[in-house]
Design goal:
By secondary structure, the chain is mainly alpha-helical. It has three helices and no strands.
């Protein structure tokens, strides 16, 4: 039983550090709550305007571009 406590404390510290690291950082911008974006429900809808060569292409530094709606949520009007 004495050997269990240090292991539990170490596990709690690791979980706390991981939670802090995952919550810090930059949040993805919200999807504007306007008429243009109100019908977007898929990544293909985003790519219609935000793909390379389109009206508003994403920067090259943008993270993986296959799952837009996981990071970007609809903003409040």
């Amino acid at each position: 039983m004495k050997k269990t406590w240090p292991l539990l404390i170490a596990a709690a510290v690791i979980i706390a550090v991981l939670a802090i690291l995952s919550s810090s950082g930059k949040k993805a911008p919200s999807i504007p709550p306007d008429n243009i974006h109100s019908t977007i429900t898929t990544q293909e809808g985003c790519a219609a305007c935000h793909a390379p060569g389109k009206q508003w292409p994403l920067k090259a530094s943008h993270p993986p571009k296959e799952q837009c709606l996981i990071c970007h949520k609809v903003g409040k009007s």
